[in-house]
Amino acid sequence: MKKAKLHVLHSRDEIAERVRWLGERISQDYEGRFPLLVGILKGSFVFLADLIRHLDVPVEVDFVRLASYGDSMESSKEVRLTKDLEISVEGRDVLVVEDIVDSGRTLKELLGELARRGPRSLRSCCLLDKRHRREVPLEIDYVGFEMNEGFVVGYGLDWAESYRHLPDICVVETEETPSEECEPGEGVKS
Ligand code: IMP
Ligand code: MG
After folding, report:
1. Tens digit of pLDDT for each residue in 167-178?
2. What angle do CA 181, 155, 163 make, to 5 degrees?
């Protein structure tokens, strides 16, 4: 298990407020529709679970799994679909829900693949956007927070599978300071 020193970037209350705001915007934009929300596993599961409870339009939910970072904090250059959808997107209003967008390759690849399957409309939503790190052109329709630096964990986001359970979004402090290492949760300061 990875150990790290963490500090809170977005508190649970701040996240809750932002997710509610996103839910309201999405509800307005999809009024009278029956969108299919596509969550990208694993990171988006907490965000998606909260987001759908702020929607007042009926929805369906499905998931895809894409090859991820593994144990590294660096963005992978190749993106692979390792679990496909079970619901057809053809003719549907599709909203892809992602935890965080970094280089943009993961989301861009998935949007390209889904577009080929003939949805009625195709949009994307992410909780966190590292916009300045973009390596491919990509506009995201609904963004929770923009962020500039660092690697974050919590609220579904992991570092080598650890820290997904933290209720706040925390920045991993990467300095090599072994004496300050801690178990998940212990280093979280508000
Ligand atoms: P991209 O393809 O470079 O945009 O990478 C997006 C994916 O990388 C996200 O779905 C996350 O799984 C992962 N990722 C990027 N930045 C972070 C981070 O700060 N914390 C945790 N995962 C991240
Ligand atoms: Mg992800």
Report:
1. 999 999 976 544
2. 30
